[in-house]
Design a protein that fits this description.
Elements lengths: L12 H13 L4 H7 L6 H13 L3 E6 L2 E6 L3 H15 L4 H10 L5 H11 L7
Antiparallel strand pairs: 1-2
Helix pairs in contact: 1-3, 2-3
Length: 127
């Protein structure tokens, strides 16, 4: 039996937007985040959001050249997997049921499942 991963607290919209920047572009400072955001935000707001992301367990920081550099504690894929596991656990513990439900609700196309299955083959060890 696979041990359920620790589910991280949910992200607010701005937290998610900033987290995605760091997951996409790699470790960065608050100033770098500000430059990449599509809307203007003040430095204290960005620093507060980064601190909250750190408190929630998504990121950590290191002091580099006099500035805090923020690093993800886990990849976007790992965080997404934990979120999906949380949904699976809350709705009966069947990943298969979740995937079938997504296809029935037209949230995912059967062709996408085939693509996913092809990508997953590299993780399956031959017996």
């Amino acid at each position: 039996m696979v041990k359920a991963p620790k589910e991280l607290p949910p992200l607010g919209d701005l937290e998610h937007e900033i987290a995605n920047l760091i997951w996409t572009h790699g470790p960065m400072t608050a100033a770098a985040v500000r430059k990449l955001l599509p809307r203007p935000l003040k430095d204290p707001t960005i620093r507060t959001v980064l601190r909250r992301l750190e408190e929630k367990g998504y990121f950590k920081h290191k002091l580099e050249n006099g500035a805090f550099m923020y690093y993800p504690t886990e990849s976007r894929e790992e965080v997404a997997a934990k979120a999906v596991q949380g949904v699976v656990d809350r709705f009966g513990g069947s990943l298969e049921d979740v995937l079938v439900g997504m296809v029935k609700a037209a949230l995912i196309e059967p062709a996408q499942l085939q693509t996913i299955a092809g990508r997953l083959k590299k993780f399956v060890k031959p017996r």
